[in-house]
Amino acid sequence: MEITLFHDRMKSITNEKLELLLKFMETEKLDLIMITDSEQSRDLNFQYICGHPTDGILFITAGGETTLIPWDTALAKTEADVDRILDHTQYEYSTIKTSRDYFENILKKPNASIGVSRGMLYGEIIRFETMFPELKFTKEPSKISRLFEELRATKSNHEMDLLMEATKIAEDTLQDIIHFAKNATTESEQDLSFLVQTKMAKRGAEDLAFPSLVANTNRSHTLHCHPYATESQFALPGLALIDFGAKYKGYNSDITQSFTFGDINQEQQRMRDITQKAYDAAVETMEIGIPLWKINKASMDVLTEAGFSMPYALGHGLGLSEHDAPFISKKPTDDFQKKYWKEVLLEEGHVFTIEPGTYKEDFGGLRIENDFMVRNGKIIQLTHTGIYPIE
Amino acid sequence: MEITLFHDRMKSITNEKLELLLKFMETEKLDLIMITDSEQSRDLNFQYICGHPTDGILFITAGGETTLIPWDTALAKTEADVDRILDHTQYEYSTIKTSRDYFENILKKPNASIGVSRGMLYGEIIRFETMFPELKFTKEPSKISRLFEELRATKSNHEMDLLMEATKIAEDTLQDIIHFAKNATTESEQDLSFLVQTKMAKRGAEDLAFPSLVANTNRSHTLHCHPYATESQFALPGLALIDFGAKYKGYNSDITQSFTFGDINQEQQRMRDITQKAYDAAVETMEIGIPLWKINKASMDVLTEAGFSMPYALGHGLGLSEHDAPFISKKPTDDFQKKYWKEVLLEEGHVFTIEPGTYKEDFGGLRIENDFMVRNGKIIQLTHTGIYPIE
């Protein structure tokens, strides 16, 4: 098996993982993997493989040769680490015509078997199937997606270094948030949002990991408040939270700090205690080698017993995406997901969140979300948020 | 044809357009349209139809009855304008199980013909086809997408009012940008990015339309600079630009202001003149009733003749998406796109950008991008950017 050696540009995939990818292609009898990334559907596997941040089509042959059709060729010249760039402006700006040249004159396998992920757009797969009826596109995109999930779930040392920096920027910004909350009077959710953004930029973040969710007690019961931050007063009596993270060289952190303002009522006190208990249960359950669904279950049991439900997984991986593999979630309940589900054990290289919460209309919501990393045989807690009481 | 009357909540689609949608379903013999919106693939048609901003599955029957499976039920209760909400937490958090209840006990059409758009994920359509083999999902998602494009291309008065506010916020912020550029010494791209964000928030923007692209002369030749803004000095001698917009109640503006700093060389002067000429050519060509591809051609001819190529369309609509219908682009060159292409004439309700640019490695890039609206029979220029020279 011939492997194309990579150049010295920044890229996330290691040669070791590339070998796993090529081995998978061999087992599945795939001649090609095709990854598309566009404004309408972002596929981080694209950046993971070739380093190019955004917008284009990437081909990887069974021999490991990579070809990129970027939307912005100038950007690709500085960012992409591939063997070949095809410039679609030379093909009447048509990605179909560019791809045709690739299939017919470079790949030269008229009936090639092609793997695509579940993140490809339905309209795109139909367009390619219609224009290249001789090519065989996989009918099981979930298989390809699961492979990428597996590859990306364990981070390389280089990736872990970047994630440590991304989490440190968020962790250091906690002091600014708590200072803001302690002194807040009429300041708005938006004021806190800007404060966090500017402080993280000063600490080296290239961007937010995602728009910070800042919710006062009137909005904190929604899972992802909308809009992200308003001009309403943040420090209203009750339950409030800010969910935020830093992006550092493409890698993301994600944490939530909660607050209680003033005297909270009995149900709100119960929510505070249950959230803390659900969080502690997860942390106490964590050990290397444990199935991830068991960590999820530890928290969920606490919540369920107290009458709360949480329509999201307890935690998720961190990486190029702020919602990366692995997923700390329950075993799937429907047959389709069961088919592609595999038990994942906590292992070296996992970087992830734990984020239980309680949400109740008319009472508000609370969440404790911290970031963890398994490195050198140890589970390291990278951030230290909680529920902060302010009289 | 029975039409479900809408409640008084904010929603973009009008009853008149809903009738067109139902008429289309009748012609295409569709029992149901299904729209999915998730983190991995945003489909603004979702919000357009039901007002719920994000994350869920929406069903619209041929009779106009709407059912929503939201990820966040609490958010749906305040935002969604639908006839029915199904809470997936009551179905073991499985959207498949929730959908099964909908198909079997509410829709009750075992062999229903279902329209989905090209923005659905390939993995999702495979999942639904596998789990519900008796249902017939369309093999022509582009037809459904084209219909939504047509509906969304012309804005209602309510939508135009929101877009006027979104463009006004951006337009008013130009004075801050020019003041910054005139006085800039060592200030960074990031400093300008923050300035624009805070000024637009103070003027009522709920968010940025998209992360502002701020590029000094070393980066302005790329189409979408990456990262969006860096700590590098903005006012370096040469060509620089900022591409930004405001989001106001869900609706987006999008403009670009360019700068020349110091003495620019002959080629850079030529780029400035060509960009202006290409922009003027488009504006002079615009008139109600003209095919949009002709406006694109007017600019492109100027650029091509001068040896420049532009791998994007001259302009795009503005709306719930910052890249909305209609598209001011050339006639398609590949057979697949030709199949679904229709000539669109400039008409009442169109709100769009015109944004020609010139880009050249080692010289930089320039773009003039302004927003226009056709209202009450007149083409109105809503914003007034250009290429600003700073000695």
UniProtKB/TrEMBL annotation, chains A, B:
Report keywords, A-Z: Dipeptidase, Hydrolase, Protease
Signal peptide range: none
Kindly give the InterPro entries that the UniProt entry links to this protein. Creatin/AminoP/Spt16_N, Creatinase/aminopeptidase-like, Pept_M24, Peptidase_M24B
What broad class of enzyme is this? hydrolase
Q: Which residues form the Peptidase M24 domain?
A: 163-375
Q: Does the keyword Ubl conjugation apply?
A: no
Q: Which molecular function terms from Gene Ontology are attached?
A: proline dipeptidase activity
Transmembrane domains' residue ranges: none
Report any Pfam family annotated for this entry. Peptidase_M24
- What EC number(s) is this enzyme filed under? 3.4.13.9
Query: What protein am I looking at?
Result: Xaa-Pro dipeptidase
| Organism in which the protein naturally occurs | Candidatus Lokiarchaeum ossiferum
